[in-house]
């Protein structure tokens, strides 16, 4: 008997790998700070999906994966709050959020 597609670990791992690849590509290609922040969130989503998939299919106690995902969600929320406040401060000082135009920040 065939199992449904959502009952296979490989599907979730491929989706997480795709999210990770898109996030890394976005970090490399995006020239704005907001685009980089969104790409970082995609990477967090890929990690969360991996934790949930392995928790569902391989862990003896599925609560462990859910706890890790809740921790990642809290970390992502803190990252967004701090990242947006930094982006707003940079925009107020330099009138741009493009990384190439922020030459005064070079060390």
Structural commentary:
This protein is an all-alpha fold. It has a domain at about 30-95. It contains 3 helices and no strands. The chain has helices spanning about 10-30, 35-55, 65-95. Helix 2 runs antiparallel to helix 3. The radius of gyration is 18 Å and the shape is elongated. The model has no long low-confidence stretch (mean pLDDT about 85).
Helix content: over 70%
Catalogue the unreliable spans: none
Largest sheet: none
Number of strands: 0
| Mean pLDDT figure | 87
Strand content: under 5%
Structural class: mainly alpha
Distance between the termini: 62 Å
Shape: elongated
Q: What Rg is obtained from the alpha carbons, in whole angstroms? A: 18 Å
Topology order in helix (H) and strand (E) letters: HHH
Number of helical elements: 3
Concise overview:
Helices cover 73% and strands 0% of the residues. The chain is built from 3 helices and no strands. The model has no long low-confidence stretch (mean pLDDT 87).
Provide tags for this entry.
mainly alpha
List the helices and strands and how they pair.
Elements lengths: L8 H21 L3 H25 L5 H32 L13
Helix pairs in contact: 1-2, 2-3
